[in-house]
Design goal:
Blueprint lengths: L3 E7 L21 H13 L1 H7 L22 E9 L7 H14 L1 E11 L6 H9 L4 E7 L3 H6 L6 H14 L4 E7 L6 H13 L4 E6 L7 H8 L12 H17 L3 E4 L2 E3 L6 H7 L4 E4 L4 E3 L3 E5 L3 H9 L5 E6 L2 H12 L6 E2 H8 L4 H9 L3 E4 L2 E4 L7 H9 L1
Parallel strand pairs: 1-2, 1-9, 2-3, 3-4, 4-5, 5-6
Antiparallel strand pairs: 6-8, 7-8, 10-11, 11-12, 13-15, 14-15
Helix pairs in contact: 1-3, 1-11, 3-4, 4-6, 7-9
Bound molecules: iron/sulfur cluster.
Iron/sulfur cluster binds next to loops.
């Protein structure tokens, strides 16, 4: 039986980082409790909301059909509370969220992740998180160089990271993930090497490396596109430098014993993110909260991004979704290739060709002859040297 992932979006932050292109906002703390109450209500009434919106829950996942709910029988094995900065919330509110999931779903939790920013971590909070079932912290460390953190508008400094890790360990967290960003303003080869070394020295179980994205969705991106100097836009590393940072990370993390299992993710043995693997393996998950996405296997839907509009919809007893899309056969094939090839394990080409009735031999052979992909029997994977330009390879394959 496949198991279900549950994602909760908490779209609140203390400040807005210059590079952030997420739908998150800085709001007064008195808005946290009503928002969490709305998410609890959405969780508890999801079956009725889905029925009213013609969301279908496919029988091939071996779950009872939604018509047999109200109490959803799906076994939930992973929960991910992301944001935003959910670690800002009073732990009692997080506890209520987790209780709402337990009361609604059949839970056998293996991995319960909380995204946390280093400056928000305190011993008392961490103990309460663990008592409520949180067993993994995804840590927004981003860099160990204060000048880079400051330029990016981050609230924390490197000392906050050094302080937070022992607090989490003492509270009983055995699974810590660090995020690092390659391409922050003021980042150099030396400073990137330093951040990697400091991260490795703290021995997290998991490390994610994200490449800086420049688009109009962030203040920094807009400034770069306009050619302005604000937000240290003139101090961004070049694209070539970013690719070199990524390649350096591959080397350093491998030699420190981390296995790369996805384009942006490395883990010690047994610590690959169970929840995030569901996204890349096209397994079902339900998202609750403003802007949260869900996938049933046959449909994808997304909630309203605006937190106030989300709250109003839920309080009025309406489904807070802004889009529901059936996943067509062509779209499913694209997802199989796009998401599957993000994983270093690659994809089972024979299964995909059989399931979708397609012959990808010509495209695959062309990409293989250009050294972009590797084929080993039925397994197709991105060539390791092409991971930093994976999007180009994927666009070529999907063309
Ligand atoms: S903490 Fe994360 S979500 Fe919040 S503003 Fe910064 S980058 Fe965006």
């Amino acid at each position: 039986m496949r198991k279900l992932g549950v994602y909760i979006q908490v779209p609140f932050c203390q400040t807005k980082c210059t590079y952030c292109n997420f739908h998150t906002g800085v709001v007064s703390a008195d808005r946290f409790a009503p928002y969490i109450a709305a998410v609890q209500r959405e969780i508890a009434s999801h079956a009725a909301l889905f029925r009213a919106a013609s969301i279908s829950w496919p029988a091939r996942f071996d779950w009872q059909s939604l018509s047999e709910l109200p109490l959803s029988p799906e076994p939930v094995d992973t929960v991910y509370i992301g944001g935003g900065t959910p670690s800002l919330l009073d732990p009692a509110l997080l506890g209520e969220l987790l209780r709402a999931i337990r009361q609604t779903f059949n839970c056998s939790w293996e991995e319960v992740t909380l995204e946390a920013d280093p400056e928000t971590i305190e011993a008392e909070k961490a103990a309460l998180w663990v008592a409520d079932g949180i067993n993994r912290i995804s840590f927004g460390s981003q860099s160990f160089v204060d000048a880079e953190l400051k330029a990016a508008g981050r609230m924390h400094r490197s000392t906050d990271i050094y302080k937070a890790v022992p607090i989490l360990r003492k509270a009983g967290i055995r699974n810590i993930s660090f995020d690092l960003i390659a391409g922050l303003p003021k980042q150099t080869h030396d400073s990137w090497r330093y951040s990697l070394a400091e991260a490795i020295a703290l021995s997290p179980e998991h490390i994610s490396i994200y490449m800086m994205e420049i688009d109009e969705g962030s203040r920094l991106g807009l400034e770069v596109l306009r050619g302005g100097p604000r937000y240290s836009a003139g101090d961004l590393p070049s694209e070539e430098a970013m690719a070199e940072f990524y390649e350096l990370a591959q080397v350093e993390l491998a030699s420190a014993g981390y296995e790369q299992y996805e384009i942006s993710n490395w883990a010690r043995s047994g610590f690959a993110s169970k929840h995030n693997l569901k996204y890349w393996r096209r397994q079902p998950y339900l998202g609750f909260g403003a802007g949260a996405h869900s996938f049933s296997g046959e449909q994808r839907w997304a909630n309203i991004h605006d937190a106030a509009a989300y709250l109003a919809a839920i309080e009025a007893g309406r489904f807070a979704t802004e889009s529901v899309q059936a996943v067509t056969r062509d779209a499913a094939l694209e997802e199989e290739l796009f998401l599957g090839l993000r994983q270093l394990a690659g994809i089972d080409l024979a299964r995909i060709e059989r399931e979708y009735g397609v012959d990808l031999a010509e495209k695959v052979n062309r990409l293989a002859s250009n050294g972009m992909v590797e084929r080993c029997g039925d397994v197709l994977r991105l060539a390791p040297a092409k991971l930093s330009i994976s999007n180009e390879v994927l666009v070529e394959l999907l063309r």
